[in-house]
């Protein structure tokens, strides 16, 4: 075998020793959305437009909230039964208590609705319930239990009473409620096998495989130089 043929035979073997120099890196990224979905909140203005709840009828899903915002002069909202308006349905009826104010009150009474059972309510101030200041959450879809019928019964009710304490809901400043709602917003977190460098900087990472291939290439070059020198000597 001539030196040149020997050189051509050995060259492929040196490259095959380390395999292909092309490497690929796979980065897996995952994004997860966490946090509880914020419940829908419904707003009711109490006494803003006279002896009224605005709106006086609401459809609210289980788990959602209803906020009662109070206006002058001194109103309340208390749960009643359809058959006995202007008086608490029981000792545990939800009730905001009286809310005396000369302007839009910063204090809000918030109810969390647990189911879709009709909830009838009224203002317990003297004469207000009889004047039609009543409302209903999740009214019946059919039958004779309508808001108009409830108003007619309230018009002839004798007196008004409310529980002695605030119960069934939460009284708090509207600013605190807003802060609480904002702090409970959903968060998005992301994780990946690689990280982005800080802005304005460049990062470079050499994998062990790449380092080994670089050493192999350098070794191949040394062999090629030796073989070339050997071939040149033989041809002289």
UniProtKB/TrEMBL annotation:
Entry-linked CDD domains: Cupredoxin (cd00920)
Domain of life, source organism: Eukaryota
Disordered, as annotated region: 21-41, 187-208
Biased composition (Low complexity): 23-41
Keywords: Membrane, Signal, Transmembrane, Transmembrane helix
Record keyword Membrane present: yes
Keyword Signal: yes
Signal peptide location: 1-16
Transmembrane portions of the chain: 215-235
Name this polypeptide is given: Phytocyanin domain-containing protein
Organism per entry: Penicillium antarcticum
